């Protein structure tokens, strides 16, 4: 048996004994988990027991932003060996369906995602099994925390790639949690600098400012739309990274005609709405971001090259035994938390 952190009820998590994974077969690798970041989606499951139609059955091992050390390799493993430190892409695609063949493994018809109900158990356990193709070696000197943070960063990288950069000079990022900050860092790495950031938590705004945002604003204290439009006629693209329906309305107001709204955040509601007349009169393009779409290696390479430094996002560290405290801190956005990391080993 081994230890794992599990959801055991609404707003309740505990460390429990679970079966040790079997010996790796084929191209599987057995990984000793070292660090796991707590994601906003983990907070949704903790507070609500579901995201859309993905409903928890208790107990359930959660977590997917992870990094660890390979303990053993299956006989079909290529390019990895015992002792390698690896970051993990938590989305396991089939490689054979129409989506995978079209270069869209993140929308694979048979996708299995780590820490997702009905799919794969999560990473918050002492050991996990993963396909070797989902594991990416860390460069020399890269920490386990950096490896775990490559997961949210890879979403930021994909979001910026999905936006495209044609006629894009000015950006808005609504929500400066780990995903919003990852979008900020990725956009800067791709040469975009005129970036406006909002959040309701001042410590996150200050982090965005230190990371290079040209303007920050708190919608609880200011009219964000009026403040930005006083400085320029509008923004070319806006990333909604907080899951707040009000932010979607702000985005439409902030965008230039022909602009792009990129929805990255996960709303608590099952349905959202727009003022369709504003949307159509401006000819706003709306894009949704679904996870990271093969951007884990790109994120790691940007960190290795020194183009991106994610270390500042990891503000809190908890041992596995304090998983309940970690979740309460994250969901309350308490104590200046940006990213909480669980040190498993």
Brief description of this entry?
With 345 residues, the chain is an alpha/beta fold. It has helices at 40-48, 98-101, 144-163, 178-189, 202-211, 224-229, 245-254, 276-281, 296-304, 323-332; strands at residues 2-9, 12-18, 28-37, 50-51, 54-55, 60-61, 65-73, 85-88, 91-92, 112-113, 127-131, 135-137, 170-174, 194-198, 215-217, 235-240, 255-263, 285-288, 314-319, 339-343. The protein has two domains: 2-137 and 310-343, Alpha-Beta Complex (Quinone Oxidoreductase, Chain A, domain 1); 154-288, 3-Layer(aba) Sandwich (Rossmann fold), CATH 3.40.50.
How do the helices and strands line up, and which of them pair or pack?
Layout: E1 2-9, E2 12-18, E3 28-37, H1 40-48, E4 50-51, E5 54-55, E6 60-61, E7 65-73, E8 85-88, E9 91-92, H2 98-101, E10 112-113, E11 127-131, E12 135-137, H3 144-163, E13 170-174, H4 178-189, E14 194-198, H5 202-211, E15 215-217, H6 224-229, E16 235-240, H7 245-254, E17 255-263, H8 276-281, E18 285-288, H9 296-304, E19 314-319, H10 323-332, E20 339-343
Parallel strand pairs: 13-14, 13-16, 14-15, 16-17, 17-18, 19-20
Antiparallel strand pairs: 1-2, 1-6, 3-7, 3-11, 3-20, 4-5, 7-8, 8-12, 9-10
The total beta strand count reads 20
- SSE pattern: EEEHEEEEEEHEEEHEHEHEHEHEHEHEHE
| Helical percentage | 25-40%
* CATH architectural grouping of the largest domain: Alpha-Beta Complex
Terminal Cα span: 15 Å
> Helix- and strand-based class?
alpha/beta
Beta content comes to 25-35%
List unreliable stretches of 5+ residues: none
What is the CATH C-level name of the largest domain? Alpha Beta
Mean pLDDT: 95
Shape field: globular
How many independent structural domains? 2
CATH topology of the largest domain: Quinone Oxidoreductase, Chain A, domain 1
What's the Cα radius of gyration? 20 Å
What is the count of helical runs? Answer: 10
Q: Would you identify the CATH H-level superfamily of the largest domain?
A: Medium-chain alcohol dehydrogenases, catalytic domain
Largest sheet, in brief, is: 7 strands, mixed
